Amino acid sequence: MKANSLYKQVVDKTAVYLGPAADLFITRQIVGHLDMAPEKLRAQDLTEIIKWIKPAIALLTDSPVLVDKYIDSLEKLASQPRKAP
Asked: Is there a domain that residue 84 lies in?
């Protein structure tokens, strides 16, 4: 996996909130809801998976501010222009 892949960026953002469980959490979300390999994650896929990530993270914390901050960071990743592979 490329060091700057979208998947890795999502895992890095998630690790701030979930620590070492971030990789497994994001992998399960992508595979379970999108039925695709995590390294194939594209911006439009991230937009879709955020719909599943938000309620899952909300169950893990009682801080709506923390959830919103995390989701905002993912939405920014989804909206960044990307180079074609």
From this structure: no
